[in-house]
């Protein structure tokens, strides 16, 4: 494990031409202190988590000290926000400090969110508040714990600097860690400003650093595209194919755990298929496919059930921006592959949740009737699957069924339709070859006990605003391994209280 000053930096992005960003020095926050550090993320960087308590760490990541080896830079990108192109975007309140290189040659971007104004801040103050930083800190740990690709957060730092949102709040910084901070919007910027040589340079950069297998003769075969029109191999077509696949897998992951991102603008879409830029995100409590987590999303453009089609819309925007490198008809053909990957990945994830190793045609009916049932009775999505993970085949026998149904009493207002569904499920389980005990173990590993419910995040925020950070660390612990029992934290697995379901999360952060 290394100390902070022992980290090795290899800053490849800042070596790109100046059109890609602007060097900016972070602006200091007052009286900084550590709120929380995520030891798992420290480990990824080979950094001793105890370093987070040092003055150097706290001062470095609140803009009070410069760390040797870093080259702070605000990235330039643009993007489509709620369907409209905005040329005026870029890191307005965050900086890429540098890229840490580990002993295994893994490269991690270190990004400081809330570090002050940049040339891309527009009317903004360049700051992030403690409230929204806690949400991103816990949200990213939650998705990572669920096995869904995401940016990470190494630590959260607080200060006495006042920041005005709807009211006065405290400024904070979040140290975001990711394989890359490249967004769809990076490519859109270069396309719409007619910098096509730089567009190619960025594509080459992405391939070299993140999809190097596409450069070898053997690697990345399934994504290698032999372009239809002229039958030559186009590496950029392979790159887009890879991005489409990674995005489809990401969305399958979100839909399976009930995660709503809330602001799927193209500037918030990662080319590596990472969950990126946590704003007013939310996890489903009751199963409601129309769930809109973003209070400012009046039309429901980014509602939970719109995410699959919005991701494709965003991929089309990216594909269009890549037309100087890929023929239009090939872009269309590549985009066509999205649905198949999404469908395959989503159905595999949902079969895992129901403990169905075999793939059978009648499963479609079993799933659709389940979703209908969950929606009609507004059943808690997470708790339903977790409860189901404790129901053995014997529990579903005619004599045991009434008792088993009692375990769902808390979740259903009327259990008659559940009974019918469980009977169909019992019949379906007869076709499973694995023994029942391993099936239930498998299901527990795919149906989390803990998710980051809005009300839990809110409670942690309320306490933190009063100076008590213990709940942040407790939630971090359960969310990092959400499939485990953690009996000492059972209360975090409870159904949300009524007030907790009605929380409105605004875009202000
Ligand atoms: P977001 O809605 O967080 O995805 O941000 C959209 C754009 O607004 C990005 O270019 C951000 O950098 C910028 N932005 C968001 N909040 C602020 C802020 N407080 N100060 C400056 N720029 C901001
Ligand atoms: Mg953003």
UniProtKB/TrEMBL annotation:
PANTHER family per record: PROTEIN ADENYLYLTRANSFERASE SELO, MITOCHONDRIAL (PTHR32057:SF14)
Enzyme category, top tier: transferase
Binding, Mg(2+): 268, 277
Family from the record: Belongs to the SELO family.
CC cofactor: Mg(2+); Mn(2+)
Keywords linked to the UniProt accession: ATP-binding, Magnesium, Manganese, Metal-binding, Nucleotide-binding, Nucleotidyltransferase, Transferase
EC number: 2.7.7.-, 2.7.7.108
Binding site for ATP: 90, 92-93, 113, 125-126, 176, 183, 277
GO molecular function term, any single one: magnesium ion binding
Alphabetical list of HAMAP family matching this protein: SelO
Positions annotated as active site in the UniProt record: 267 (proton acceptor)
Reactions mediated catalytically: L-histidyl-[protein] + UTP = N(tele)-(5'-uridylyl)-L-histidyl-[protein] + diphosphate; L-seryl-[protein] + UTP = O-(5'-uridylyl)-L-seryl-[protein] + diphosphate; L-threonyl-[protein] + ATP = 3-O-(5'-adenylyl)-L-threonyl-[protein] + diphosphate; L-tyrosyl-[protein] + UTP = O-(5'-uridylyl)-L-tyrosyl-[protein] + diphosphate
Function as written in the Swiss-Prot or TrEMBL entry: Nucleotidyltransferase involved in the post-translational modification of proteins. It can catalyze the addition of adenosine monophosphate (AMP) or uridine monophosphate (UMP) to a protein, resulting in modifications known as AMPylation and UMPylation.
Pfam families attached to this UniProt entry: SelO (PF02696)
The name this protein goes by in its record: Protein nucleotidyltransferase YdiU
Species of provenance: Photobacterium profundum 3TCK
